[in-house]
Amino acid sequence: MPQRTPSCQLGAHAAPDTRPISPLADDTQCRPHTPVRGIQQEIDHTASRRTGPRRWLRAVQWLIGAGLHPKANQTTMRVAEDLAARMDYDLGHVRYGLNDMVTRLGLSRGYICKHIGYLRELGALVWVQHGNSTNINRLKGLLGYAGTATVYAAVIPPVYDHAMGHTIVGQGYEARIVIDQRGQAPSAPEPVDNPPVDNSSSRGEETPSLTWLREESQVQVVGGVTTTATRQRKTSTPTNTSSSKKRATILGNRVTAAGMHLGDKLARAIRRRVPWARRASHDQLRWVCADMGEQQWTEDQAVRFAVEAGHTHHAGYGWEPTAPHRLIAAALRTRQEQQQADRQMQDDLAQAVAWEDSTAYREMAALRALLAPAAAESEPESKQAYTAEDKARARMDWNNWPDVLDHLAEDELDALDLYGKRFVDFAIEQGARTRATDYAY
């Protein structure tokens, strides 16, 4: 769409823009942009206004496409997208986290630092806190060492607002956008990072106009009624909306503040220690980890579960999942189904009838009782065991070895029991000698 000024034609919004622009002296050129350096890169001295991640990415894309920095390119955009994915949605603040960015983006530390510098010089990034080697744990009275982190804030420079035709109220970081809606039918404004507030005013005898101020952490006021009150009236009647469905987690657990807080920590641990999971946004992983938080998982448990789920599908080796949070969610559902099956089996075993009390056992016992007399009749009568006196009398005279041989031929085991092994061996030896003598003659 053609811009308000002839030379501001790049990257215009697709929707028509009827808002007045901040006027220049001759109104024929884009507001000149010089690299932002020095103290102007600090949050307290910046000329750029604050914003949230969505609007910020749109502005950064326009600034790079407009060629306002000769060295900014698509790599700069990649760095900006990484920051936006971790950015606080309300304030637009984000921790630098250079070491993690090196891992996620596959770029060198120096290369990332250069493109972060390009964003600062474009006026799209300002310092909230400078990182240093001061041990923050010592200041908190804790043990160990932890350096002070660098924190940036997302901002939009005046050159972008001028090109888009925005009217600005205020200066610097706390500046806001004003939308004049006089003569237009009342309608809800498009979703913005900075929720608008009513700034209605009258001019002479005209009907009070409705203007919108886009500012962080404020509610929308339309005709004296806040959006909060409107939302309460609309939700007073039961309706089947998507927001009501989100009161339950993926596994059907009830969402609690403590569970979501712990799930947020577990999601950060997974993003930090499982490389293939970084394709998912933090919000996606946090919602998946809400069930882990409700079950009071530790960070090691959550990371180990994600790694094992990835190994099942070769994630990170032969396959890079485009939606890692869905893979983890599917693994959680599979785990829940397996646990339910195990509990059902345990309940079935606990309620099962013992074998001794079963009908099959009683029928088998009755059949055995019927067959027992017939089996007893078919068995031969067992011989009575020899007493010690019987054995001693039989072994007194070894000259009766022919009788021993006869007994041995009839029942070997019984002969060994009665005469003993020595007497039996002697009888066998004597019988062999007698047969040898007979053969000699």
Mind explaining what this structure looks like?
46% of the residues lie in helices and 9% in strands. Helix 2 packs across helix 4 (109-121). With 441 residues, the protein is α+β, with helices and mostly antiparallel strands. It starts with 48 loop residues before the first strand and ends with a helix. The longest helix has 28 residues, at 324-351. The model is unreliable at 1-7, 9-29 and 194-245 (pLDDT under 50). Strands 1, 2, 3 and 6 form a four-stranded antiparallel sheet that branches. Strands 7-8-10-9 form a four-stranded antiparallel sheet, with no helix packed on it. A two-stranded antiparallel ribbon has the order 4-5. It is rod-shaped and about 140 Å long. A hairpin with a 6-residue loop joins strand 7 (167-169) and strand 8 (176-180). Among the domains are: 38-161, Arc Repressor Mutant, subunit A, CATH 1.10.10; 257-351, no CATH class; 388-440, no CATH class.
